[in-house]
Amino acid sequence: MRGTKVAVVLLTGAAAAAVAGCVGINLGNSGDAGAAASSAASGSGGDAGDGGGAAQGIDCIVEPTTGATLCSGISLCPGLYVDHDVYPHCGFRPKGNVLDIECACSEEVCPLGVPTTCAQAKQLLDSQTEPQVCTQVAEGRCTPGAPTTAGGTSSTCDRTCSSECGGDPSCLKQCGC
């Protein structure tokens, strides 16, 4: 009976080691890069990157009005995701081991802030809204995007109209943006 207990303990230890090896797996695909941001660190203050490859985006799309790849999450901050009810056109833009959270505002991409840690990124996401971020368009603090077009047609966004929206998503939609 004692030999059976030792075998069970050894098998349990082997299973735990196998599961622990899976913890670092990052799913998702990396997208294009946004503006440079500061090196990211985890919410506990430690280095969020593994020192190896670039951050991986999680649940990414190409936003059509800007051509920006926006991701719901990023491998640098496991468990931190953009709430698309609050930020329907925003996400992480993975590049290297930096945190870059951007919003597609009209045909421009505006930064949510410049977090250096996952805790700072969470605080920025918790304390703002997409319309607040998009007010930067009128202030000239955003980067022009490269809109994607379907079937070779050009964008229908009226830039004069959108400049008067103050970042309001419903107004931007009425302007064709």
Descriptive notes:
- By secondary structure, the protein is α+β, with helices and mostly antiparallel strands.
- The protein has helices spanning 2-22, 118-127, 130-134, 136-139, 159-163, 169-174, and strands at 57-62, 69-74, 90-92, 101-105, 108-111, 143-144.
- The strands form 2 sheets. It has a 4-stranded antiparallel β-sheet. Strands 1-2 form a two-stranded antiparallel sheet.
- A hairpin with a 6-residue loop joins strand 1 (57-62) and strand 2.
- It starts with a helix and ends with a helix.
Compact description:
The chain has helices spanning 2-22, 118-127, 130-134, 136-139, 159-163, 169-174; strands at 57-62, 69-74, 90-92, 101-105, 108-111, 143-144.
Q: Which helices and strands appear, and what pairs or packs with what?
A:
Elements (H helix, E strand, L loop, with lengths): L1 H21 L34 E6 L6 E6 L15 E3 L8 E5 L2 E4 L6 H10 L2 H5 L1 H4 L3 E2 L14 H5 L5 H6 L3
Throw out a few tags for this protein.
single chain, 177 residues, alpha+beta, 4-stranded antiparallel beta sheet, two-stranded antiparallel sheet, 6 helices, 29% helix
